[in-house]
Structure formats: C-alpha cells, structure tokens
Amino acid sequence: MSPAPGKEPDDPRTRREADIRLRLLFGGDARLGPGKADLLELIRETGSISAAGRRMGMSYKRAWTLVETLNNIFCEPLVLSTRGGPSGGGASLTETGERVLAHYRQLEERARAAGAADIAALEGLLRDMSIKK
Predict the structure, then answer these.
(1) Which of 101, 81, 129, 90 shows the shortest CA–CA distance to 39?
(2) Which pLDDT tens digit goes with each residue over 9-58?
(3) C-alpha distances in angstroms, 3 versus 16, 22, 129, 131?
(4) Helix, strand or coil, per DSSP, at residue 44
(5) Prediction pTM value
(6) What is the CATH number of the domain that holds 68?
C-alpha cells in the first residue's frame, strides 16, 4: 500500500497495524484530535503552516483555519506566525502549544498501553485482508 498523495511514507496516518487515534471533545466546537495534533507537530518540524499543511495534503487555508481554531479554544495561542517578506514568514509552537501537544501525545500513549490486550484480541478477530476477492 502506498501512502496517499501528500502523506509521507512514515506518516502515522498511513500505518497498517491497529492503532488508537484519540479525539477529545471539550464541548461545543472545542476539539483536539489526531489531525490537529499532527498539524501542530508538523508546524514544529517545518516552521511553516503552509509546509505542514502540504505534508498533510491540505490547503494553506485549511491549515490556517485549524491553527486559528486551536489558538481560539485554548487559554493562550498554540501557534505564533510571522508574515512573509524579504526574510520570509514562519510559524512556531508557543510554550502552551508544546504543552498541549505533549499532553495529547501522552494520552495517546496511555490509551495504547491500557488497550494493548484488547487491540490484540480485536486484531485476532479480523478477516485476513491480504486475500483479494
């Protein structure tokens, strides 16, 4: 299976084995899930909202909308951006952004560890997907 367009081969969204993807619903429209967490991680890695969006196969407008949403639902902005110009623009995670991402990833790890036996049991009940009909 090759990765979807815009997704890197090591992208966690292209994994074959079972995994937990955690979505937190805080009420109203305040949500934090795998897509927003991956976007934050890629902004940190690339230093750019547009580059992070491209790596995820989304438009700059969509990436920017998600960043604005994240910046508005938490007590402090998670991402700071600077406009382009002669020296170019960029983006970085704030201290709060780093903390939010770290807590989210820790929750994912705890869920994986707590659910490992049940995940393995469910995998054992799956149909063999390598057989083509």
Answers:
(1) 101
(2) 455 545 457 888 999 999 988 999 999 999 999 999 999 999 999 999 99
(3) 11, 21, 17, 20
(4) helix
(5) 0.79
(6) 1.10.10.10
